[in-house]
Amino acid sequence: MVLTPFLASTGSKIGASIESKRGLIGARKEDIADAKDYVVVAGFGRVGQSVCDLLDARLVRYMAFDLSPAKVMEARNKGLPVFFGDACRPEVLKAAGIKNPKAVIVTLDDQNGANRAVNALRREYPNIQIFVRAKDAKHQKKLQLGGATAIVPELLESSLLLGGAVLLSYGTPIEEVNLLIEEARKKTLMDAGLDISGLTGYSLTKSDQKI
């Protein structure tokens, strides 16, 4: 147990040192030989993994990047296209053979890091879509000013479902609760500049009434 923090720190330093020399870790020639029209996912934590699962479900090609050697090794062992590197640095994307990504999804939970990422990516890629995870309305505005084309508030779904469960516990009909949830979700996405035509999302069922 005593060695764990030391090993984690050492692994990060070694990884960062290698990255500074090579620009990218874990990429084989077959991985980056045809890296066109890829969606880039910056960060392979909980949110990043969920995003990649959705892209996989729709057979959307992606390349994910993370600065945790342990996360990258675990993902690579599963055959996933995850690499060690900072996807918010355009030179890292170019090292991966990605000259013009189809879109970039920034899942960083650090507000300042997300702001810097948007600014750097927008300077290098003025025409791509950048989707960013925002902490709150204030952070959302900052990211929009930085050139993000869509912002997804971090706690939207959990807050909607929690509020809906409370309404259910007060006897509000489930159909009305689901309508309120859907309207709130659409308004948030519209405020972020997304096209919401045909949008359907998760709604409460009767089994969610107990909180």
List keywords for this structure.
211 residues, alpha/beta, six-stranded parallel β-sheet, 9 helices, globular, disordered N terminus
SSE layout:
Blueprint: H1 3-22, H2 29-32, E1 39-42, H3 46-57, E2 62-66, H4 69-77, E3 82-84, H5 90-95, E4 103-106, H6 111-124, E5 129-134, H7 137-145, E6 150-153, H8 156-169, H9 174-191
Parallel strand pairs: 1-2, 1-4, 2-3, 4-5, 5-6
Instruction: Give the SSE order as H and E letters.
Output: HHEHEHEHEHEHEHH
Biggest sheet layout = 6 strands, parallel
* Percent in strands: 5-15%
Shape: globular
The strand order across the widest sheet is 3-2-1-4-5-6
Q: Percentage of helical residues?
A: 40-55%
Distance between the termini: 37 Å
Structural class: alpha/beta
Summed over residues and divided by their number, the pLDDT gives a mean of: 77
Radius of gyration: 19 Å
Q: Which blocks of ≥5 consecutive residues have pLDDT under 50?
A: 1-23
Helix count from the secondary structure assignment: 9
Number of E-type strands = 6
